[in-house]
């Protein structure tokens, strides 16, 4: 077996098991058994489980961030002042995500489950890796989002960005289940693009909602 085939098999197996079971719950032995390779192959190509986790993320985030940067360049050059709306930003990100999924709803769901795990499971090395590798793209996205929402305070924008991310991750990570429920309850089979078309206006409205302002407006839970 060629080395490139071995690496691909290990990565393919690892990302599926990580997405299904989580990082801590997935052992290298489980990966090597399912991938039909020996432990020495994992150690040779990756060096450690932590490095394997990082490689799984790099395989889809590397091309995705490159494509996102290129899409941002094209989109900002197409508008007179280079300023995109919230809707523009969300559509652009969605298109890049769908393109990276290569037409596979299952792959899109898996990518989103992995993204959720990066937040919810204690993997300090992974957060550090993501910050080192993709901070430039993240801050560029945050900058254009800030320009599109000047009415929001920075702390409000921070929370809304992560609320948006949480909604996106939950919806796309649960895509197949949600599609099945919708088909059962309403007799309609929605594609991943149909679901995204439903999701984007909701996300845009949430991000653009007016500033909460003072708790005296009646929103305080005290």
Q: Helix/strand/pairing class, anyone?
A: mainly alpha
Uncertain regions: pLDDT < 50 for 5+ in a row? none
The dominant shape is globular
Regarding quaternary structure, what we see is: single chain
Largest β sheet strand count, sense and barrel closure: none
What string, H for helix and E for strand, traces the elements in order?
Answer: HHHHHHHHHH
Q: Helix amount, in percent?
A: over 70%
What does the average pLDDT come to? 90
Provide a count of the helices: 10
Number of strands: 0
Instruction: Please report which band the strand proportion falls in: under 5%, 5-15%, 15-25%, 25-35%, 35-45% or over 45%.
Output: under 5%
Radius of gyration (CA) equals 20 Å
Distance between the termini: 64 Å
């Amino acid at each position: 077996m060629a080395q490139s085939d071995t690496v691909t098999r290990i990565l393919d197996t690892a990302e599926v098991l990580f997405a299904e079971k989580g990082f801590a719950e997935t052992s290298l032995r489980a990966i090597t058994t399912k991938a039909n390779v020996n432990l020495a192959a994992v150690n040779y190509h990756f060096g450690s489980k932590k490095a394997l986790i990082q490689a799984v993320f790099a395989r889809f985030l590397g091309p995705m961030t490159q494509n996102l940067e290129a899409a941002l360049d094209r989109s900002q050059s197409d508008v007179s002042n280079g300023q995109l709306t919230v809707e523009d930003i969300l559509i652009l990100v969605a298109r890049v995500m769908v393109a990276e999924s290569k037409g596979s709803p299952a792959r899109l769901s898996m990518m989103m489950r992995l993204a959720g795990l990066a937040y919810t499971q204690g993997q300090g090395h992974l957060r550090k890796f993501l910050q080192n590798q993709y901070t430039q793209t993240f801050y560029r996205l945050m900058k254009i989002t800030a320009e599109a929402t000047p009415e929001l305070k920075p702390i409000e924008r921070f929370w809304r960005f992560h609320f948006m991310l949480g909604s996106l991750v939950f919806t796309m990570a649960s895509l197949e289940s949600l599609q099945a429920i919708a088909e059962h309850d309403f007799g309609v089979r929605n594609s991943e693009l149909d679901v995204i078309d439903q999701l984007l206006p909701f996300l845009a409205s949430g991000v653009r909602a007016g500033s909460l302002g003072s708790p005296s407006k009646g929103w305080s839970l005290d």
